[in-house]
Design brief:
By secondary structure, this protein is mostly helical. It is built from six helices and no strands.
């Protein structure tokens, strides 16, 4: 089971390493895609600017054509360039008349100044719009020349728009396989992560089973150890009891001490369980006695 757990852990480690490597590749790829998408966005915006300029110039051109034919524009509104040109022209005429016409009355001059102020405000309002689209100046006195000039400028803006759109399409063709690779890396990362999770769960399951078995083994081992210690204790106590029972007085320190104390207190020691009435039998006979080895003997074993 330990080998199985280690095998699952090794599989999970390899899966995690592969997953991390794939995720790093995917992260770098996403950064490149983001950069290219930003470039494409800028190109698309540039194409829209050219398109807006083209549409504005074409509108101006249609207005001039309508004026040349004595008609008004379809929507009734003049293009910015026409409005600006007409406004500037009227401002010039009013300023020139005020400066050169000495027959103007005070009331008439005040009215012209009021009109001039209104036209100047309108001019200031139209100028930023004209600058945004880079509107070319036209000469309302030369309708045909202005129309041709606007047509050439409209064609140039249209070509610039097409060129920018083509560039954006080429960038997209570079981005498309990168998106496919990104999707593949994402799927591969998910697969490796799932493999990592599966191996890790399998390793945890085996480890949990091992822990249960080890707890059981330790419990049985402790029980066997306790039984063994109990047997050793019983045997040790039994051996000690047998050893104590077989000791002679000279080997038994406690018994020797007891006899010594008795000798000191009573002046005599009774050995072998003899009675006081047996003193006569204990007296030495006049006959030559055999030498006796001194020492204590065990008590009467009867």
């Amino acid at each position: 089971m330990r080998e199985q757990r280690n095998g699952h852990n090794e599989n999970s480690r390899r899966a995690a390493d592969s997953r991390n490597s794939v995720q790093d590749q995917a992260r770098e790829l996403r950064e490149r895609i983001k950069e290219r998408l930003e470039e494409q966005k800028e190109v698309r915006n540039r194409a829209k600017v050219h398109q807006g300029k083209r549409d504005e110039i074409q509108s101006q051109m249609r207005e001039l054509i309508s004026q040349r034919r004595g008609k008004r524009g379809e929507d009734g509104l003049k293009p910015v360039v026409i409005q600006l040109s007409e406004t500037i022209g009227e401002i010039d005429r009013i300023e020139n008349r005020i400066m050169t016409d000495g027959s103007l009355t005070l009331g008439k001059e005040n009215a012209m100044l009021k009109r001039l102020k209104t036209l100047i405000a309108k001019r200031e309002e139209l100028l930023p719009i004209a600058e945004e689209f880079q509107v070319i100046e036209i000469d309302l006195g030369d309708m045909e020349g202005s129309i041709q000039l606007l047509k050439a400028e409209a064609d140039a803006q249209h070509k610039s728009m097409l060129k920018a759109n083509k560039e954006a399409d080429e960038i997209w063709e570079e981005i498309r396989p990168m998106l496919e690779e990104r999707d593949f890396l994402r799927a591969e990362g998910d697969r490796l992560h799932n493999a990592f999770v599966t191996s890790r769960e399998a390793a945890d399951k085996v480890h949990s089973d091992m822990k249960v078995l080890l707890d059981q083994v330790n419990e049985i081992r402790n029980e066997i150890k306790a039984q063994q210690e109990e047997r050793e204790r019983i045997i040790k106590e039994h051996n000690q009891a047998v050893k104590d029972a077989l000791k002679t007085p000279d080997e038994d320190e406690q018994l020797a001490t007891s006899l010594a104390n008795q000798l000191l207190e009573q002046g005599s020691i009774t050995l072998g369980g003899a009675r006081k009435g047996d003193e006569a039998s204990q007296r030495p006979s006049k006959e030559k006695k055999k030498s006796r080895r001194l020492g204590t003997t065990r008590g009467n074993k009867n």
